[in-house]
Write a structure and sequence with these properties.
single chain, about 650 residues, alpha/beta, eight-stranded mixed β-barrel, 16 strands, rod-shaped, binds ligand C2E, binds calcium ion
Amino acid sequence: MDFPDIPTLLLLTVCSNALVAVFMGLMHRAKRDAGYFHLLALGAAGMAAGWSLYASRIWEWPPEVSYLLAHLLIASYPALLLLALRRALDLTESRRWRWGVATALLALSLCLWWAIGSRYWMTLCATGGNAVLFSASLWVLLRHGRPFDLARWTILAAVAACALMLWLRLGSVLIRDFPLAGGDPLLVSLGLIVPLLSGLILAMAFPVSEFVRDAQRLQQQSERDELTGLPNRSQAQRRIGEYLEGRRGPLALAFLDLDGFKRINDSLGHATGDALLTAIAQRLEPLLKPQELLARFGGDEFLVLLPYPPTPAERRARELLSAMAAPFEIDLREVHVAASAGLSAFPLDASSERELLRLADIALYRAKSEGRGSVVRYRPDMGEAANAELEIELALRLALEQSRIALVLQPRLSLDSLRCESAEALVRIRGTDGSLQMPDTFIGVAERCGLMPRLGDQVLGLACEALQQLRQRNPEFNLSINLSPLELRDPSLSARIDAALTAWALPSDSLELELTESALIQDPVLAAERLSELKARGLRIALDDFGVGFSGLSHLLEFPIDVLKIDRSFVSRMLSDATASALVEGLIALARRLGLRVVAEGVEDQDCLARLRALGCEEAQGYVIARPMDAAALSAWLRDAADARPRESSD
Ligand code: C2E
Ligand code: CA
Ligand code: CA
């Protein structure tokens, strides 16, 4: 039978094992922390050296000792392999196994020592010893039936093949009593080729398994939220994607968002905020059922995957929210927090991950506006409202960037002097076609999407610019601007106003700030503080839309207020509605008693104006006097009014 002769096979084995040794050595340098590549390098080097010594006997180099050494070196390979496997698989019984392997090796070398001189007994001992060691390796691997990946299956197969070969060879030696180099050439060559191939396969499989493990570890790390240890956004998105692809039945997404987390963060510090998020994760995670998933989506937003139809999912979301009712103990302090949730359902609402997330977000937005702790399921009409809002937001952003924010000014008439000494600035978005968009459509959006500070800043700048122009002809002219409740909370408000007044060389008493009750009662302490700060700088404060909220007159009047603007809903009805009339009358009297200046808003006809004047109202604003107009038009209007006045008074 034609097959490579034994010396050639030996040479091949030596070279391939040397190669494996070099390869493993390089791997060890690259991945020292793996902790087992050096064992494999050592084992393969031992194999190469062992087979060289073995070959030297065939090439008639000095025998005996080298023959024994060869067998020992070759036998050390499975021992080292075993150690390497143990480390690769993180097996824990290290001591017992190390002792077991050491004993086996010792027994093997003693047997070989005893057998020196007899080729038959040497072969028997070496082959038997190796067969036992390889089988033990196989047994360890199987016994620790871990989830094997492809690389480890390869190792398993290689070790099994080696063990099988060695047992076969041992059997053939025992039964047929054949001399090593003759007799059964197929078995001999297989006995050499199989370990050779196994060595190569192992060299490949180990690094592969190591790299697979690294990749898995990296993926796990990149899919965990560092703070809470929960799955993060990318894992949540992957899991949703997998679920939808697998079409595993209904799925609901619940977005949870903490109510007032920003306040906690601001007042108690970020460390407390972080600790709270961790505590929430720790409280909610044990409550999850097997198929549910809780992920931190970012900031104070969590996402829960609920594999149920919408109604049970909504119930589950409520259960999870109610688990947050008990206070959290953070740094020996009790912190109360509530959350709102928005739900979207697959396949009812949408069938893509992105769309489901978007819809849950829309529902969450609605839940937030409904107040603390509400759970809201997405409905299509919410989507339309959200789309409309998104469009307004985009238009506003664009207008802010392209300086298309404009102010119109509505004069306020002093009813004693019949002079116009001040005006209110009202904001507009100037469209690219020159049209003007009214504030009712975009102020709310600006507040919700965080654009209010930028908008307020531009309004302030434009108002100061307009006021400075107006004061060139009317040196005593004043202007009022509207402040949103959000702006009042801004700690830099006074500084910003200061800066604007200075930039336009305006005295601070030329500017009046209009605020609604809602701005004051949301956080009365902060509001009182801010107002005192502003007043100390000489600015005047007006209470706008007075009467509509009616939240405790006396309480409101404790704030440092200079001007009361009676809401136009009363003023417009005062001639036709006795209650409205009584109210306006009462408010005027009250304000005068308290030393406040009263302004009636929305005056639309002359009779109403005359009545207000008779009641002692100090100022009026409304279409009967003038509609809002731009600064140039107001300048002209003021000039015309001044020209008309002498004639008017001569009537
Ligand atoms: P507001 O402060 O009560 O402003 C008065 C509103 O009444 C203005 O509407 C004005 O055009 C309108 N008006 C004036 N006279 C009459 C009248 O005789 N009859 C009727 N029916 N309406 C009259 P506008 O400009 O649409 O402003 C609406 C609201 O938008 C304002 O109500 C104010 O709350 C808010 N706003 C306007 N500009 C700003 C701003 O720069 N910043 C902030 N935060 N809010 C603003
Ligand atoms: Ca106003
Ligand atoms: Ca008003």
